[in-house]
Amino acid sequence: MQSAFAQARRRIKLVHNGGMRAAQPKNVRQSVSLPAKVASQVRAMAKSRRLSATRMLVELIENGIEADKRKQQEFFDLAERFRSESDPDAAKRLGDQLGRMVFGS
């Protein structure tokens, strides 16, 4: 004679539908070598904001990523304006702006 638990266990069928993902780590340890001057600037910034140097680096990296995304979006917006411009003078001005964005100066 089987227990009620054993009988229930035989009736249960587990199905994995792919909806559950493996747990992702929240943080990834990354080793980075910095030039001495940059490292001292990071430490000074961290101290003035009362943060750890690691947290300061994370904030600087996050800000840099956001700035890069904004710059890329500005470029695509300017390129779209350039392509859709019908006035030759305005198109030249926009083309010059695009050139400055790509090549600097």
Head-to-tail CA distance between termini = 87 Å
Tally of helical runs? 4
- Oligomer state of the chains in this structure: single chain
Structural class: mainly alpha
> Quick one: biggest sheet?
none
| Mean pLDDT over the full residue set | 85
Order of helices and strands: HHHH
Percent helix among the residues?
A: 55-70%
Instruction: Tally the beta strands.
Output: 0
The low-pLDDT segments are none
Q: Calculate Rg over CA atoms.
A: 28 Å
Strand content: under 5%
What coarse outline follows from CA principal-axis ratios?
A: flat
Keywords:
single chain; mainly alpha; 105 residues
Describe the protein in words.
The protein is mostly helical and 105 residues long. The N and C termini lie far apart (87 Å). It is flat and about 90 Å long. The protein contains 4 helices and no strands.
Short account of what is shown:
The chain is 67% helix and 0% strand. It has helices spanning 4-11, 36-49, 53-84, 88-103.
List the SSEs and their pairings.
Elements: H1 4-11, H2 36-49, H3 53-84, H4 88-103
Helix pairs in contact: 2-3, 3-4
